Predict the 3D structure of the following.
Amino acid sequence: MSDLSKRRLKLWIRLLGVTRGAENRLREYLRVEHGTTLPRFDVMAALFRRRDGVTMSELSRMLLVSNGNATAVVDRLEAEGLVRRTPSETDRRTVYVALTETGLASF
């Protein structure tokens, strides 16, 4: 491995460490200050940006998570009245999800 490659690898490892540290601090902040988790925050932030709603598949792609992970978070948010699911009028397989008024107010 060349010296340049070694330096790049060391820099990459440092960046990963900084990123993980920042994410851990954010997780702790969201938990302590807002009583929420990073996945819940990510879903609500994505829906806040797309107030007209998105399909569950779009939401999964936006968040870079599996459909199952997105569904689990949306299930909990829906049970709390923070999001609503609306079936597509043209495709029975498609469901849209959007923040409710309560969700907008709490975000």
